[in-house]
Amino acid sequence: MRIVFLGSGDAFGSGGRFQTCMLVETTATRFLIDCGASSLIAMKRLGISPNGIETIIISHLHGDHFGGLPFLILDAQFFSKRSDPLTVAGPPGLRDRLTAATEVLFPGSSKTAHAFELRAIELEPGRPTELPGLLVTPHVVDHACGAPPFALRIEAEGRVLAYSGDTQWTDALVEAARSADLFICEAYSFDQKIKFHLDLVSLERRLDEIRPKRLILTHMGPGMLARLAEIRHETAEDGKTIEL
Q1: How wide is the angle at C-alpha 238 spanned by C-alphas 234 and 240, nearest 5°?
Q2: Catalytic pick from 34, 64, 75, 142?
């Protein structure tokens, strides 16, 4: 399993980073975890073809996590000339929110017929769902976004990849990430309590319960980025590539 951090930033580009988007490649499939508004730019900068993506899994319906979908879908339709099916899976409300976002950004475009099959799947909290080449289980976390926000537990090729999404501390993170081969976790601040976001100190207090085999911090705000030199955990950055 190969993971590329296409975007590791927060909603407002702290540190000049792209918004959240991760590419995961296995021998069976290629998929994205989240697709922030800047994701298509990040993919093209790194020379990654959007047409090679089979599935996109969305953690929650904020623009820095799903706002890249209208751009990617329209690029596939009019410029990349995609023909293979694309599956987009996310929280309840995904279909309506995607249509609304597409209409706001490009009026009339949501009614355009696609040359490829676009499958939108709304995941049920706590229910494992099979997607092409993987199994995803969403866990509801604590982040106000107008729809259930998820942490994701993804199983593929005998590996477990967990992702916190955006959330303040919640015990759901223990279930979502327990003993994962990799836990990609938000650490927006170092110790400052910011509603609906996770600080590193709160995460560290509970890491013994999660016990991930590998931890990578992401979605870091200005305060965290200013303290990178003193953080003992592995951190994400745009373009970082790892193998599991």
Answers
A1: 55
A2: 64
